[in-house]
Amino acid sequence: MTKTAVKRPGLLSSAVKIFDLSLGQMLWSRRSVFLAVLVGGPVLLAGVVRVAIAFEPAAMPRINGANVGGAALFGMMIWLLYIRFIVPVLGVFYGTSLIADEIDDKTITYLFVRPIPRAAVLVGKYLSFLACTVLLVLPSVVVVYFLVVPIGGGSVGREFPSLAADLGMLTVGLAAYGAVFALVGARVKRPLVVGLVFAFGWEPGVLLFPGYLKRATVAYYLQALVPQAMPQDSAISMLMQMFQELPSVATSLVSLAGITLATLWLAGRAVETREYVLEQ
Prior knowledge:
Strand order of the largest sheet: 1-2
Structural class: mainly alpha
Helix content: over 70%
Mean pLDDT: 81
Order of helices and strands: HHEEHHHHHHHHH
Number of domains: 1
Largest sheet: 2 strands, antiparallel
Number of helices: 11
Strand content: under 5%
Shape: globular
Number of strands: 2
């Protein structure tokens, strides 16, 4: 009597199953409730600004004595709130937890006993992270756009191509940051601390100095995709323009795709080879 060999599922099909299993859990987790409140902050701020200017036109923001139009104000909010804060925070809190949470909850052994490649667990959870964060961030940006751009007589229709570019850039940023911090979560014992230091210590620091270190950041390539979103009158903007030239859009897209794929592959390899010892 011969035994029939059981064919092991492939990486992609296994990742899709893990994605389907993880998405609902991630959307309704306590972490997602907190982060939904986080991305709701810019919407609330935009609503307050819109109402304040409607009742008191003198409250219009000014730079060097000139009124800031709705499109410029929207660009500043995209740069300061989303690119420099919300997107890295989402990457840190979600990306580092893809494997770390399973270790802390002592459920990782149940995932690894399934007849699927270990890397598929990480890839599937990464895809659920990307879907979840896109569902949180992009609607927030669209609402802010319709609240802020009409301020000062701005045209919503005329600025729509910039909105589409912003949405695409934020999606690329979420994918890159998520992959980088997925690697941190798979390799480092306390990934949240390392992730916060990288996102809010290393990246802002090296961007202000000349040299090649800035090429080891996600923000360097991300900011080049939609340069009009960067506030041109800020001190940080002037310093960055003194010390560096932004890469081209094509270079940035290729670099961000390379960062995403390379770090995701390395994270998958780490999950495949690492021995996870659960603390009692």
